[in-house]
Amino acid sequence: MGGKVLVINAGSSSMKWSLFSKNDFSIVASGIAERVGIEGSFLKINFEGSEIKKEIKLNDHKAAAIETLKLWQKHKIVKKINEVELIGFRVVHGGEYFNDSIKIDSKVIELIGECSKFAPLHNPGALQAINAMLDILPNAKMSATFDTAFHTTIPSINSQYGINREFAQKWGIKKYGMHGISHKFITLKLQEILNKNSVNFVNLHIGNGASLCAVKDSKSFDTSMGFTPLAGIMMGTRSGDIDPAIHEYATEVAGMSLKEFTNLLNKNSGLLGVSGISSDMRDLVKRYKENDENAIFTLNLYAQKIVDYLANYINKVGKKIDALVFTAGIGENSSFIRELVIEKLDLPNLNIELDQNKNNISPSEIKDYLLISSNNSQIPVYVIRTNEELLIAQDAVKLYE
Length: 401
Ligand code: AMP
Fold this sequence. Notes:
Layout: E1 4-10, E2 15-21, E3 27-34, E4 42-47, E5 50-55, H1 61-74, E6 84-91, E7 102-103, H2 106-114, H3 123-136, E8 141-146, H4 156-159, H5 165-171, H6 180-194, E9 201-206, E10 210-216, E11 219-223, H7 246-252, H8 258-267, H9 270-275, H10 281-289, H11 293-317, E12 323-327, H12 328-333, H13 335-344, H14 356-359, E13 369-371, E14 381-384, H15 388-399
Parallel strand pairs: 1-6, 6-8, 9-12, 12-14
Antiparallel strand pairs: 1-2, 2-3, 3-4, 4-5, 7-8, 9-10, 10-11, 13-14
Helix pairs in contact: 1-3, 10-11, 11-13
The structure holds adenosine monophosphate (AMP).
């Protein structure tokens, strides 16, 4: 068996992984350890079309990794553990330190720790996973790929908030952006599709979390998430942009603590909080089609928030714009939302139009990408499947070539 590349995406209580073959980047297996450090933890593995599940006590990320590797051997996913030559970690926040993927050493670990203040729910999980793998597989070559790195090219005219400059600089308050791994993957894929070295487009990464990115000359020029992933468009459970003074109102008038209100914005707003039905787009589209007024309002609000950013970003990308791209769970799979969004665009002298038949092609028939705009559309519209894990694996190999 050949060498393998392991990609790890660790959260505070979960560890998601994908195992790639190093020579052709085909997927060998993937899985997750869930409820790490919490009652009811378990491991799940997808291998050769079947799912392996094991309920097992996992006190921390190290235990999760050790038990996962044991299962690999039991099910002959690898012959020997040292087939894992490279490990690429997804790290949410790299602050201003990292503008690309990087080999992991003690200095990198220290700086990832420093950035935990910006992503307290995410960076500590990645660090725990990195430290666990350094113990378990000390000979594997390790790298980190950051969600923020692609956005380090955003000029200050787009990344700085209109708040007191001295205060903002002292505390590192600016737009860092998220989903950079996906936005970068789509940028590279669009270059390939259009056969160009440099592309200008708006990427709509719309999944449970969602962000738009204005890409100019293949670089991030602006993005809708901000200092945290709470900013921008409305999402599955996150509110997106709101008037910042509502925080004070919520604490004083509604009697909530700041933490409780922030939690409401993160966990019980967006599609879920507005509709009171579900955060899952499939449920809402179904209810919309059954003429449920609540679902109709929620999805129109959702699409309007997207269009407000989209129009803004079409303007930011400017006249050289090559395409609009829909990606992630909703962008790739919901022809309904794509249509609702494009229908609401009404830019003077600019016709953007979908080809109904192409837009309605079943998601299972879309392999890597599909052009869904009509011949009359002045900007081509694509669906492109994102693959963050693949980019992390490819970067790991490139760094150690
Ligand atoms: P992600 O976070 O990228 O995995 O995306 C998750 C979102 O994609 C959820 O809101 C799902 O409801 C949505 N999604 C997945 N498949 C479909 C589908 N066939 N139609 C509509 N939404 C979908």
